[in-house]
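Fill-in record for Phosphomethylpyrimidine synthase.
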Amino acid sequence: MVQTQLEAAREGTITDAMNRVAVRENREPEFVREQVAEGQAVIPANTTHDALDPMIIGREFATKVNANIGNSETTSDLEGELEKLHTAVHYGADTVMDLGTGSDLDKIRETHIEHSPVPIGTVPLYEAVKQAGSPEAITTALLLEIIDKQAEQGVDYMTIHAGILAEHLPLTDGRKTGIVSRGGSIMATWMEAHGEQNPLFQVYDEICEIFAAHDVTFSLGDSLRPGCLADACDEAQYAELDTLGELTRRAWDHGVQVMVEGPGHVPMDKVAENVERQQAVCDGAPFYVLGPLVTDVAPSYDHITSAIGAAMAAQAGAAMLCYVTPKEHLGLPDENDVRDGLAAYRIAAHAGDVGNGRPSARDWDDALSEARYAFDWREQFRLALDPDRAREYHDQTLPEDNYKDARFCSMCGVEFCSMRIDQDARDRAGGEMDRLESGIDLESSPAAEVNRPPVGTHESATLPSDEEWTDRSVEEVGDD
């Protein structure tokens, strides 16, 4: 019989996954066990996901970042999705959610799980709509069948939209953007058509039993999250949050791990309030936030508007940030969008860790600053969050190798480089201005792995090489 990480932790057992997490986070295994036992952290680790390198999500650990990928009926295929997964893992995603709604969903999902060293999440409701043909045609039996199938395939966590109830729907009538959650709109349509309560809420205990059998983690969906600043912190959003608190405790009763999803668009002065309210209502279960976006005016730049809110949420106690790409609200992200979204969110997560004083989180910053002051360009590139892009931008104007030893860049040039001027002044001062000291050794730093370079925070021995991703033939991947 499968024992979940939560059940093992409650019994006092430190699992292999907990030991691995302790190494990665530079924390004591017993502390990891205690956090999982109390529901304050989750280790999404389906028992059949053999390629997984276990990780932990919780406010007492390094802030994590999720990358959403997935195809649609009109855009992307299996090879495209595999390339997105490869890009996401390479650039530091801690988890990946497959939100595909197009063709070949089972094959894509199985291939991701076969190769991904990071946890894979899904939203089974999307596949239910695809199979049923419309939201109204979904049946409870179909929902349970799909959830059970995905659990058997090895999905580590699933977004379940069980918190939106029939009595919540009238609360959305005065909103500016209505129900913007894809899953929330589907369940609202079903309830309006059938005049019945949310079927996911009605069979929630059965879903818990499926999750317990495979150690799948709940990601309780925020179906009524605000889709614009005007709708933030309204009665509908908070009514659903109260239900999510109840569902959290019911899942814990079944020995199932839980994290709770958070709002999308929230003004800056309300970000901390949202985190604090979720932590109180859901008894400290990890908060997994989308953004939040702190302004509505920047389509094509929403990876920036949302990273601002994400950094604030991380410092307030959010455990995982769901990235937003430049394509948010505009189109399906491609590989470059995944890269840009992850860069913005890795910055936000790291900034939150530094702001919260996570053990040695700032060592990375200090090491890069020392390399910058020493004009050690190669070390700057190595330490950069995105080494390839840092090198590319430098080499656009000074590409020759001799400039890798130069005491200037093209921004200030030789005469106006402040750091060169400062160094020369210290050399001439004859002791009146001391030389600056350095000495950060990142190899021995107690910082968590996600707070150390280079990008990519998981073991990736099972991940195919770039060539393997691109060389797959149609015969290998199928075309149903």
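KEY FINDING: Residues 5-356 form a domain with the TIM Barrel fold (CATH 3.20.20.540).
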